[in-house]
Amino acid sequence: MTAKIPDPDKNTSDSDIRYVNLYESENKIYTRKIKGFYQSIRRYTGIPLLLGFLLMPWLVIDGRPAVFFDLSTRQFNILWITFGPRDGILLAGLLIISAFALFTVTAFLGRVWCGFTCPQTVWTLMFIWAEHVCEGDRNKRIKLDQSDWNIEKVLRKSGKYSLWLIISFITGATFIGYFLPIRELLSGFIPSFNDNGLLVFDGSLTAMFWTVFFASVTFLNAGFMREQVCKYMCPYARFQSAMYDSDTLAVHYDKVRGEARGPRKTNEDYKAAGKGDCIDCSWCVQVCPVDIDIREGLQYECINCGLCVDACNSVMDKMNYPRGLIRFTSDDELQTGKTHYFRLRVLGYIVALFVMIILFASTVANRQPVTLDISRDRGAHLFRVRSGQVQNVYRVKIHNMDRQSHEYRIKLSSDLPFEIVKHRPILLDEGEIFSIPVRVSIPKDKLNLVKSNITFTVTATDDETMSAQESATFIGPSE
């Protein structure tokens, strides 16, 4: 998709119209490597998250991966807790809490999630690191791309793409390792010879496909799409402005102090010449991963990564100027010199977030590791009359989500004398799901309603606190 951009300084004609591709960067971004306070924060926040992602599938608790989503059995193991399909409400609650946490942080600190902990940002930084290692700093990379192909260029490009492929494969394999034991997954990529002398892979083709798929997506996103993902694909950039206010902390350029910008000579009285502290070195643009100029004002593409702050501070240090020409601040601070940190909007977010966390933690703490599902047996009639007894057949499904085996018994509770025919306790292993038909009976002369409510209760014989209930309807004859 393209857009026509007329030149505002000319009378518009067809020759004055410039066509811009709205979904593609006009120029490749070559970021400058910079050191500083915010770069260190990115390292201290990104590395622990990255290590947690990479190491969690390898961590074993009670003989199983610490975090493992077993789609075949619909069991989701997170540390010492096993969740089942009926725990979907907890997932919804966790997503709501995460959303409110994001809103709270954004209202207070802007898009720091994007700049410091977003996976797209973290992986992009790893790929940029590979560029620095193989192709050199910003100027060397520009010259390398502009030069003709030779041995050095081939080697440097090959080295960069090789590192990208290694990072991408590790990423894809680790992600699939949350759904399939990672040791089993990786062993499937080791080829062997069959009886016919052909080289084959013993792993699951499905698992291998998805590993390669996610590796390819990582290679594409972090290697080539980078800022396009943040600008055009991520919805957060589009609605973030709804959470900003005049007191939200974000990266700002102090125009009052910086303008008019321009170069100056050493020991020149630049203020007498009408210049500000900005020497127009463009370092703030060169380090920006989304290629914007923060001096043009706050823009939706800005991810608040703070790299322009570190770059500007390093230049200010060289010029012996005060730091903070570009800094994390608010519109109010720039206008009035004061920021209201604890305002009603932020306090409302914090209170709502605090309440939801308490409710979620209480729900998880009081959750029973056993579930019970009751459904009428499709292979049986609505009711059956035998020897003066009215009987209904139900399909009872018990899911033992505890980390050890338990023996469960089923009880009935109702205002009428219902009984379970020939029932005995059921032994379920760890994580086992057991389905059994259960026949419920009552004397016909005791049944005075066509439909009666009954409650099934399943309880562990060795732990009375482990129980679950489910209601059902008993159907009898109309006369």
TrEMBL record:
Keywords: 4Fe-4S, Electron transport, Iron, Iron-sulfur, Membrane, Metal-binding, Transmembrane, Transmembrane helix, Transport. InterPro entries: 4Fe4S_Fe-S-bd, 4Fe4S_Fe_S_CS, Cyt_c_oxidase_cbb3_FixG, Electron_Trans/Redox, FixG_C, Ig-like_fold. GO terms for cellular component: plasma membrane. GO terms for molecular function: 4 iron, 4 sulfur cluster binding; metal ion binding. The chain crosses the membrane at residues 41-61, 89-110, 161-180, 200-224, 346-365. Pfam families: Fer4_18, FixG_C. It comes from the Bacteria. Residues 269-297 form the 4Fe-4S ferredoxin-type domain. The keyword Membrane applies. This is Cytochrome c oxidase accessory protein CcoG. It comes from Candidatus Endobugula sertula.
